[in-house]
Specification:
single chain; 199 residues; alpha/beta; Rossmann fold; 5 helices; 7 strands; binds guanosine-5'-triphosphate; binds magnesium ion
């Protein structure tokens, strides 16, 4: 995919505030602090577009990025961050589901991120299961792989494959590892769904 333009469109705290401009969605899902916003920046080759943070649970909104004025990248709030009041957590987990349901027809692709250094959690498994029922087969990105050596990476990929299936891609927002592969899959998902002339 040739990125001609990428811009932040809006932060949404309620699913009904979603943007209405046409175009399919690619959604980014994963535990809080796993590196969703960082990977979005890497995929779009723009360092500061998506806000990243050392503090887990920072992105409590869904953030919409308009790419090539043709499709959406949707940075969903991270799930599974324990250190917030249950009510807050329910609100934003409800919003994740709300947005996925409301934009069901638009969603053509997704990236589910897991941290290469930890085995997928119960929440990751249930998210995967939920997406399966929803009808979305996400790209599974095993990110922060730069923190592991070659052996560790292979091990991590195997663990993720076992837990979540799919064809996990070792990735790193820091080094760009896996970015080409992720784009290749997203290209396939987006093909024929946007109206810009792509070659
Ligand atoms: P929430 O919005 O809170 O759910 O977090 P997020 O999933 O968007 O994570 P974010 O991109 O903000 O990254 C969290 C932290 O991990 C930041 O300090 C990033 O710099 C770091 N990080 C993200 N991806 C990578 C990676 O591939 N390698 C390394 N070494 N660090 C990373
Ligand atoms: Mg984020």
């Amino acid at each position: 995919m040739k990125i001609v333009s990428a811009r932040f469109d809006r932060s949404v705290f309620r699913a009904e505030d979603e943007p209405k401009d046409p175009g399919p969605d690619v959604v980014f899902l994963g535990r809080s602090n796993v590196g969703k916003s960082s990977l979005i920046n890497r995929l779009l080759s723009s360092r500061g577009l998506a806000r990243t943070s050392n503090t887990p649970g920072r992105t409590q909104s869904a953030n919409f990025y308009r790419v090539n004025e043709a499709f959406w990248f949707v940075d969903l709030p991270g799930y599974g961050f324990a250190k917030v009041p249950v009510t807050v957590r329910r609100t934003w987990e409800g919003m994740i589901e709300g947005i996925l349901q409301r934009r069901r027809e638009r969603i053509v692709g997704g990236v589910l991120l897991v941290d290469a250094r930890h085995a997928p959690s119960e929440l990751d498994r249930s998210m995967r299961e939920w997406l399966r029922e929803f009808g979305l087969d996400p790209v599974i990105a095993v990110t922060k792989a730069d923190k592991l050596s070659g052996n560790g990476r292979a091990e991590a990929r195997r663990a993720v494959l076992e837990a979540l299936g799919g064809e996990p891609i070792l990735a790193s927002a820091a080094t760009g590892l896996g970015v080409k592969e992720i784009w290749a899959r997203l290209d396939l998902a987006l093909r024929g769904r946007t109206w810009t002339s792509e070659s």
